[in-house]
């Protein structure tokens, strides 16, 4: 079991995974004295038995990690596992047996541990998964074993959760969590006010100020390169460019992508923008977007707008982009399922802000591939383009905002309906 790390495409930082043993220890801290079975100072016989069991597990787990790091023969390691050494154990540094196996680059052990249920996404105290360790050691085969286990596990959990109707799971990253704050809930976000400003590094930003005094960038202009490359990939060699593309964008933010879309060599014949936040709509009015020829602004949440007759009457699109805020992967998946109806045909192109898991290399890789699998399921093929975004100094990029994207490469998806012929 691993504590929720990150479920939103934008806005949230990965939080440290709490080793399970510390949860058990906290759960078993003696509290109220129990009648009839107390030993001393409110500690019950059951509590002592539990503490002894925890100590035994801690010892076994520690011995297992040592044995792996000391490269003992697999038979010794298997013996420890058979004796009950827990694969979910993490020592004081947060190192698990899987981390240890990655440190010693032992593919066999990694396979055994993953098959036996080791937690693929456990992070150590420095925020590294076993996959990150394999990656940092340039060990592609070990990395792929862990990454593929992550993809399988996330896909399976997504299926199980959709079948059982479960909304929540503590062991997966992509299932929605309980966040009701403005960074994790659309309704709370839409009820919060936004600040459009320029930071001390001359960067245009749209900021949300949650109640806890922190600042979260809803959109920051360091992402300009991502948006402009996205438009390039979506439009520049589009077979219908000369006719004037029919474009749909969800989420205006700072209007960066919409401005890029207006600058393609042939202006779009129809440019629909769906935007839900009242403060953003005010900005759009101030900037004259409502008067822009060919631009149609549809106010409201995309989930509602796409059902309106006024929207359905517009027909299908050549180019579609979505980049919202405070929405989780499940919402993005819901949008994926609309694509076959929204895209005009196999020439139409779709992209989305690919930010899930983007504060950790392994998670970013896993979730890019999970999205690819889900799109493939509905008949949409994705190709990926890498955009270098690692250039700026951290402070210049983030100012006072929480960091929501820390990878040096942005993986830009371009998706098209698979041709049926
Ligand atoms: C990250 S910004 C988009 C940035 C934009 N791509 C740009 O280039 O500036 C996200 C935008 O999505 C809007 N938004 C969030 N949830 C939405 C929803 N459910 N429907 C429509 N718009 C939404 C937010 O108000 C915000 O303006």
Q: What class would the helix/strand composition place it in?
A: alpha/beta
Which spans have pLDDT < 50 for at least 5 consecutive residues? 1-7, 12-37, 167-171
| Mean pLDDT across every amino acid position | 86
CA distance, first residue to last residue: 45 Å
Outline the biggest β-sheet: 5 strands, parallel
List how many beta strands DSSP finds. Answer: 12
- Which ligands are bound? S-adenosylmethionine
User: From N to C, what is the helix and strand string?
Assistant: HEEHHHHHHHEEEHEHEHEHHEHEHEHE
Binned strand content: 5-15%
**What is the percent of helical residues?**
40-55%
Helix count equals: 16
Q: Strands, helices and their partners?
A:
Elements: H1 20-27, E1 38-40, E2 43-44, H2 45-69, H3 74-82, H4 97-103, H5 107-115, H6 130-136, H7 140-164, H8 186-191, E3 194-198, E4 204-208, E5 216-220, H9 224-236, E6 246-250, H10 256-262, E7 270-275, H11 278-286, E8 295-299, H12 302-305, H13 309-312, E9 319-322, H14 329-342, E10 349-352, H15 361-377, E11 380-388, H16 394-398, E12 409-417
Parallel strand pairs: 6-7, 6-9, 7-8, 9-10
Antiparallel strand pairs: 1-2, 3-4, 4-5, 11-12
The structure holds S-adenosylmethionine.
